[in-house]
Design a protein that fits this description.
Layout lengths: L4 E3 L20 E8 L3 E6 L2 E5 L5 E9 L4 E8 L7 E4 L6 E9 L2 E8 L7 E10 L2 E14 L10 E7 L1
Parallel strand pairs: 1-12
Antiparallel strand pairs: 1-11, 2-3, 2-12, 4-5, 5-6, 6-8, 7-10, 8-9, 9-11, 10-11, 11-12
């Protein structure tokens, strides 16, 4: 069964910063998970921009989840000069979003990305790019991959919505 992860993040983003530079701590993000589990999480500083290969601008995400006991980490290469508009797993050549949940002696991997099998998918609508960062909405579908003898739940996908 295929599932979609929807992630909602309000006002996330940072200026053009180095990949490891945190965004403004006052930035608030809200993530909504559906699929294998249902959760809404809110945090400060879950999104930032950075520099990728060849100077491309990257959107970096660190979305916490109490259910997973960790954060989903994401990197989306938006190219050398991103502009408002639609980006997707069909148009962005390098992207990933993943987290590992430890259950007993096993692990459930929540994964999507251009180098992941199965790949998953995302749609990112960028509405504005300013000094505070990238603003818009991200909708993501991730596959849940379980190690042998690990019960990761009834669904094969998790869906996330994020408003930036």
């Amino acid at each position: 069964m295929r599932r979609l992860v929807w992630l909602a993040v309000a006002g996330c983003g940072g200026g053009s910063a180095a990949v490891d530079a945190p965004i403004d701590a006052s930035t608030r993000c809200t993530a909504t998970f559906t699929g294998n589990f249902a959760e809404t999480s809110a945090s400060d500083g879950c999104a930032m921009t950075g520099s990728g290969d060849g100077g491309d601008v990257t959107l970096l995400l660190k979305v916490p989840s109490t259910t997973l006991g960790t954060a989903l980490d994401g990197v989306f290469d938006l190219g050398p000069q991103p502009t408002p508009g639609h980006y997707s797993s069909r148009t962005v050549t390098s992207w990933r979003m993943r987290a590992a949940q430890h259950i007993g002696d096993g692990t459930c991997l929540y994964a999507a990305g251009s180098q992941q099998v199965p790949q998953g998918s995302f749609d990112l609508m960028v509405t504005e790019i300013d000094d505070a960062g990238i603003h818009g909405t991200l909708e993501l579908t991730q596959y849940i991959l379980g190690f042998p003898l690990t019960d990761c739940g009834d669904n094969a996908n998790e869906y996330l919505t994020l408003a930036l």
